[in-house]
Amino acid sequence: MQKHIATHNKIMHADEITAVALLKVFTDDEIIVHRVDHDTRDFSSYDIVIDIGRTFDEVKHFDHHQNKGGKSSAGLIWDYLEEWSEYPRISKLIEMVDMHDVGTRKAKSFEYPSLLGCFNISQIHSKEQDVQFDKAVDFAMTVLSSMREAQDEMEKSKEITANAYLFDKNPKVLEFERFTPHWSTFINGELTPYIKAVVWEDEEEKCWKIQIPPKTVGSFELAYKPLQQDPLMHFVHSAGFFGIAKSRDNLVKYVKKSIR
C-alpha cells in the first residue's frame, strides 16, 4: 500500500529524516515523501504529516513542536510504530536524535544526528537538496536496518550459544552448530570464565574455525592466552584470537595441545 508522507522542505534535520526512514524500514508500505513549504496548511491528501503542520494527534499528524514530551518527530514516529521494546538499541539512537533536536544534548561531530546534517547543501531551495534528502534517508535506513538485523540475529545467537556443546569432550571449548556473529555477547571471560575457546565448522569454506573469547564484550583483550602458529593449522591470526584448520581431526589435535 502506498503512503504519502508530508514533511518540510529546505534545511533537513535528523528527526524528520529518521522518522521517514523508520516508516520505510518498519512498515510494508511504499513510502512516498513530499517535501512541502512550512506555510502549507492543507494536508488532506497526505497519509502522515511529519515535523510540520502545527498539529500532533498520534495518528496522522506528528509535529513535535506541539508536543511537550521532549521528543522529536523521530521519537513520535517510533512511538507510533510501537517497536521500542523489541529494539532497545534503536530506541537509544532515537533518544539521541530527540535530545539533539529539542536541545537537550547536542550530538558530537561524528555522532548519528550530526552525520545526517552533513547531507545539507548550501542551495537549500534547489532540487539537489531534495536529492540530498533522499540520500540522507537511504543512509538512515542503512543504519536502522543494520541495527534491526543485528538485534534479530542476537536472538538467534542466544539460542545457538545456549545449544552449544563440548568440543571433543573438552570442558573449556564449546562447539556451535553453526557460526553466529554475536556469540561473544553470551560467551566471554566475564560471563563464562571457564570457556577458553569456541569452534565451529564452516561448511561453505570446508574448514573448521576456532576463536578465543574476549574478556568482556567488545574488548580486544582475550580471555585466554593467544593461539600459536602450528603446522596443524592452515591459518592463525597474528593477534592469536582466531585460527583455521582444514579438518576437524587437525583442530582436535591442535586444541589438545593448546587449550588445557
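the 2nd protein, sequnce then structure:
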Amino acid sequence: MIPKDIIKKLRKIQITTSKDVMEVFSGHYQSVFKGSGLEFDEVREYLPGDEIRSIDWNVTARMGRPFMKKFVEERELTVIFILDVSMSTKFGTRNMTKNTLAAEVCSTLAFSAISNNDKVGMITFTDRVEKYIPPRKGIKHVMQIVREALYSKPEGNGTDINKVLEHFNLVTKRRAIVFLISDFMAPDFKDLLKTANRRHDLVAISVTDPSELSLPRAGIVYVHDAERGDFTTVNTNSRRIRNIYEERAKSFILGRQKYFQSASVDNIDLYTDKSYVEPLIKFFKVREKRRRRI
C-alpha cells in the first residue's frame, strides 16, 4: 500500500507536469523526436526507377528476381530514462534537492512521451544497477516511473555510469531516445557514452546545486561525503579555501562539458534554484533548428 502523502505528491506532480506538457512541451517534443528515423516495413518487387541501394539481396537471391526493402517513418518511439539515485544526488541547499529536480524532469518528459503514444522505461543506478522498468505505455506506467524516481531506496551509495551503460546496451536492442540524468560525479565513462550515443539518441541532463559551485561563508563547518562516508572540517571564512573550492568546481564543470562534446552528446544543464522549463524548451528549439538544416 502506497502511503497517502506519497500519493498526494505524485498527484501534484502529475497535475503540474501535465499542464507543462500541454502548454509547452508536447509540440516541441513531437517536432524534435517524432519521425526521427525509418524502420523496415516489408519487401516488394523491384520497379523501374527504384534506388538500387534499397535492394534486399537475400530475398532477391532466394526468389531469383529483385526485391526492394520498404521503409516507413517511425511513429512509435521508445524513451528510456537512466536516472542517478546515488547519495550525491540527495544534496540540495535551495528550492529542492538534485534528485527531486531529476524526478520532476523525468515526470515532465515522460508525460510528453506518452501524450505522443510512445513507450517509456527507466533504469535507476548508483554504483550498481538498482532497478530496470521495461518500456510500456500509459498513465499508470508513467506514475510507477515517477514514484520510483522520487522514492527509490537504493542499496548502493556511489556512482558508476559505466556499469549502468553496459546494462543499458544489453537490455535495449531497438534504437531509443535516452535521457541520462545525473550530477556525473563518477569515474571515466566517455567510451561507453560514445558507444551508447552511436546506437541511440542520447541526451545528458546535468543536475547541479549552486553550493557546489561557490562555497558560502558560514564559519567552520563539518562536511560529509555522502558517497564515501568521509567527514572533514572546512573553514569557509577563509578566502583561500573558497577560491580553491570555486576553481575545482569550475574545472569539474568544464571537464563535464568536454566529456559530452567529445562523445557528441547533447547536454542540458539544470540547477536546483532555477526552473527547468526554460532550459528544456531551449534544448528543443536548438534541436528543431538542427533538424531543419539536415
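The chain has two domains: 4-33+75-209+265-293, 38-73. The mean pLDDT is 82.
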